[in-house]
């Protein structure tokens, strides 16, 4: 415990987390115990402040307590590679796969092979892609090679920037970046895509209107 250790009430003030919530996190095992100072007291340090910030961020991203616990267990474990750790952490984010549509993921495999990307069926996004492709089929829609190539190229460019910016100092920082970045930036990407549609449509229809007026 560092020299800046504080009582739990001071921890609540420093972190901005209610005392009752901190005690709940302690009971649930989400927050590591403090250093005992008496039969009923303990002191807490900077690592507790950081852990509370991570818990709050995960909860703010919509994760339930069991899924927050799963992410924290990955943070505290060194039994897996970083690749597998990040994959398992991302799996705690929605949408959740209740049942695999096809354990072979034939549609997702075909798409990933077309894009020249690794096919790892244990990675939950493979199941997400398979479900999405089934949804397209059910709606009578198709994913043309032209559209798929455009999607793949541009999304890969986004992913390259995100991976380049990923902190590598600690596993905790990496998982925080991967999980929260995925949860919080994906809505931004969706909104920007729709706004690009709006902008392009406005320009298209404006040009079409001007052309019609000139003809008349």
Q: Helical percent range?
A: 55-70%
What does the overall shape look like?
Answer: elongated
Mean of all residue-level pLDDT scores: 89
Q: Unreliable segments (pLDDT under 50, ≥5 consecutive)? A: none
Gap between N and C termini = 81 Å
Q: For the largest beta sheet, what order do the strands appear in spatially?
A: 1-3-2
Global Rg: 23 Å
Q: Largest sheet, if any?
A: 3 strands, antiparallel
- Can you write the helix and strand succession as a string? EHHEEHHHHHHH
Q: Label the structural class.
A: mainly alpha
Strand content: under 5%
Total DSSP E strands? 3
Total helical segments? 9
Which tags fit this structure?
216 residues, mainly alpha, 3-stranded antiparallel sheet, 9 helices, 3 strands, 3% strand, elongated
């Amino acid at each position: 415990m560092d020299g800046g250790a504080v009582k739990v009430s001071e921890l609540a003030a420093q972190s901005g987390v209610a005392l009752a919530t901190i005690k709940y996190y302690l009971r649930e095992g989400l927050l590591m115990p403090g250093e005992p100072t008496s039969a009923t007291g303990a002191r807490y340090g900077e690592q507790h402040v950081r852990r509370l910030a991570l818990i709050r961020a995960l909860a703010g991203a919509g994760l339930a307590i069991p899924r927050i616990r799963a992410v924290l267990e990955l943070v505290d474990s060194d039994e897996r590679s970083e690749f597998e750790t990040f994959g398992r952490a991302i799996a705690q984010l929605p949408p959740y796969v209740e049942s695999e549509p096809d354990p072979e993921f034939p549609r997702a495999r075909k798409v990933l092979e077309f894009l020249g990307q690794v096919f790892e069926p244990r990675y939950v996004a493979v199941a997400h892609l398979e479900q999405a492709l089934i949804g397209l089929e059910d709606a009578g829609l198709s994913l043309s090679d032209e559209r798929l190539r455009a999607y793949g190229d541009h999304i890969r460019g986004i992913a390259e920037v995100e991976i380049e910016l990923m902190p590598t100092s600690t596993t905790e920082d990496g998982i925080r970046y991967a999980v929260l970045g995925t949860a919080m930036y994906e809505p931004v990407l969706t909104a920007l895509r729709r706004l690009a549609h709006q902008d392009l449509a406005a320009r298209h229809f404006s040009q079409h209107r001007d052309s019609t007026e000139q003809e008349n």
